Fold these 2 entries.
Entry 1:
Amino acid sequence: MRKLKWGMIGGGEGSQIGPAHRLGAGLDGAFEFAAGALDHRPDAGRDYGRRLGLDADRAYGDWHEMLEGEKNRPNRVDLVTVATPNSTHYEITKAYLEAGFHVLCEKPMTMTIEEGEDIVRIAEATGRICAVNYGYSGYSLVRHMKAMVARGDLGQIRLVKAEFAHGHHADATDADNPRVRWRYDPAQAGVSAQFADCGIHALHMACFVTGQDVEKLSADTVSCIPSRVLEDDAMVNFRLSGGTVGRLWTSSIAIGRQHGLTLQVFGEKGGLRWAQEQPNQLYFMPLGGRLQIIERGEANLSPEADRTSRVTIGHAEGMPLAFANIYKDLAEAIRAGKEGRPIDPAANLYPRAEDGLRSMAAVFAVAESGLAHGQWVEARPPMFR
Ligand code: NAI
């Protein structure tokens, strides 16, 4: 079976997320890194691409050049990852989908709900995959949580509690740091800072695991550092389509918290607790029973968990391997499409453009509710009401 060809836009030298994508895409031998426009500085992007092993004629200076160079090649890339800053996602993703490429776009997928709806329509019209990198949904035990909820191990889900709270923007004297400043500048970040950056991961996780969508929400948004226009902390109450109550806290001023992504799910028959910093253990408490620690890689887990676990039990797996599971799903989806067969259901779990759009609607709802002192507001995108 020939390897699929993979291209990347953004993720240049020194970027935060580029290495995790390259590790993830390369891990199972399904994708070969074949083309890239890796940096906003053309020469730096070409040079870095060549150093990473790209052929000189496929280490491009920018994404337009890459589109022209790839679209008519017989061995053109099968999948393009967009890992550039947020404001560029829409135009790049749109252009590549329209040229017939499958795309994995970083979150947030777009800057507005309208752009999000446009991407959903284009993906549907072109029949191309548009995935969104809610990469934490790739963890084996997150897949297992979803499987446990779906098969009824917890009964009806009453409550979900999600957090994504870190302390990396807590230093008020660091406000002019260029890596921090843009995130709280409405012109560059849009209507929300911390919720759009981190809160949407926690919200996506709550929806992914419960299999429900957000319908309405109420948000208390604050800038704990007063010079910031956009929020650095938010507490969001929400309601899911299956009746589950949702609570979410996201913060960037929580000193002492590192990554801080956690999920707890409480049903009629039991509760689950998982933390991204200890991703190889899942805590399950059955009603009236004893606390159980489920280990990644143990026997008799769900097919969804088995498929996304690579290293023997007791040896830690981490975040790039979660990203690798999104790529593993996408490789299966692309191959199934080429071969005209249905996709393996255990692989059909990668986040879609629809998830990216729902996140944008939630971002705008949080901003609206925050300004209205926590008033409950509609959180579904117009397209899905
Ligand atoms: P970064 O600022 O560290 O790196 C951005 C890279 O993109 C740089 O190499 C830059 O030269 C390049 N770039 C900028 N404009 C470009 C253009 N027009 N064409 C080609 N390359 C261009 O940013 P970071 O933190 O890596 O974030 C990138 C994206 O990934 C953001 O949308 C962010 O929200 C998302 N992200 C997602 C995470 C996840 O867990 N899914 C985690 C961290 C970031």
Entry 2:
Amino acid sequence: TKKVIVITGASSGIGEATAKLLASQGNQIVLGARRESKLQEIVKTITAAGGEATYASTDVSNLGSVKGLAQKALDTYGRIDVWMNNAGLMPQSEFSQGRVEDWDRMIDVNIRGVLYGINASLDTMRKQQSGQYINTSSIAAHVAGPGSGVYSATKAAVLSISESLRQEEAQAGSNIRVTVVSPGAIATELTDSITDEATKAGTKQFYDQFAIAPERIAETIAFAINAPADTALNEIIIRPAKQVM
Ligand code: NJP
């Protein structure tokens, strides 16, 4: 059945691939991100293929902006069946470099963005007595290493937030499912967010060896959404077959 699916970070990478796949399966997609021209282009591609989509330019680190995205979904399609908290940044660096601005941006987008997404949509799902969250975490939540401390911490926060939300909604009997998808190296624009040039070069080299296409993640998310309503896939870890850590 047709679902209204809101996706943050939908202007590139995993969000874009997921929007396109879910639209091709007959769902109504609401895309959010900051780059409006990219969102317009993706909506055009989806509608040209016979699908249904709209967008709202959204900064997930601003609660009012995220509420605007939720309102766009309600105004256009009348409900919210799935909310995908996917916007994220990965400006990795070692602590000794003191890149405090990068830490703050990761906290604002990777953590606050997820909390604001929940806040903007949970009332609606509670009223509907159905819904689903797809929260994009990372393999980095499970495996921290040099340079990944803050990114790993923000993605571990996504696991904690998701698990509490899952338990609360299960207890309330609200029929709201919570799914975390924790990817390994995926070929997207994510490495562009690294501000330290040496770290960026090293990470891109690592990705170039074996990163898999964002369409793989989109297929995984579609599987979790299409699972029977009484069944919740709570966390999916998905790596390139050749990725060690
Ligand atoms: O990266 P990318 P991915 N407000 O850079 C948006 C996680 N992940 O698809 O605002 C709203 O192509 C940005 O849009 P824009 C990762 O941590 C990935 O890989 O227009 N949106 C763009 O659409 C992240 O949570 C890998 O610039 C904001 C999107 O975020 C998720 O996957 C591995 C925003 C980023 O798209 C999607 O990232 C892993 C804001 N303030 C986890 N700031 C991987 N690729 O290897 C950014 O473990 N965005």
